[in-house]
Amino acid sequence: MSNKKCGNCENYKEQGHNYCRMCGYHLTKGNAPHTRLSTAYNTNEKFCGYCGGIKNKCTCV
């Protein structure tokens, strides 16, 4: 997980994710986490938008 935002973070925040699916930045830090969204992953996404773990290897799968 990243400590710095990337160029995609705001887009994922607007979609309602807790973590950026590209860089793993925690978007809801200090706030209550959003519920899990059932959205398909793009091939270039690396992280789970709900828990921030590595996609398809986290406990959310």
Describe the protein.
- This protein has about 60 residues and is largely without helices or strands.
- The protein has one helix spanning about 10-15.
- It starts with 8 loop residues before the first helix and ends in a 46-residue tail after the last helix.
Gist of the model:
This protein is 11% helix and 0% strand. With 61 residues, the chain is low in regular secondary structure.
Q: How many separate helices? A: 1
Spatial gap, N to C terminus: 18 Å
Based on secondary structure, the structural category is little secondary structure
Shape: globular
Profile the largest sheet.
none
Tell me roughly what share of residues is in helical segments. 10-25%
Supply the key terms.
61 residues; little secondary structure; 1 helix
Walk me through the topology.
Layout: H1 9-15
